[in-house]
Amino acid sequence: MLKNIFIVLGLLAMSRFIGLPSNFSPLLAFAVFIPRITDKKNLQILLPTFILLATNYFLEPVNIFILLSITMVFILTPLLSMVSKNLVFTSVSSVFIWHLIVNSSVWIVNGGSMMETFLLAIPFDFKLLISTCLYVAMFYSVEKIYFNIRTARR
Prior knowledge:
79% of the residues lie in helices and 0% in strands. The protein is mainly α.
């Protein structure tokens, strides 16, 4: 089981390097889904956040203030997922929280019109929403298959 966990974590980390757009990543979906995998609250918060920060070191530099706001979203998402067991609600809410927090940071760092910053972010964040929902659906499907196989073996 531990080996499987390390494989999944490695795949999540590698997914940030395979050439997908930065808004098409399984990492936010993992933050939504992880409370279904483990009851350990520290792991629920630390694993997605650690993967984000560790892989970000090797990627294109991001303003520290914006990176901290992204990190905040990754801390809040598992907490939201613990409260609401509805994966669709949590996926949509986490992207909405992303839209508010991260784009506020972008506006503070870059200046300009707040309305323009938020409007220009909608296509990016919509793709983030689509990818988060797709990856959550994939994680959910894998979970169902795993439990069906496990139940059939008994």
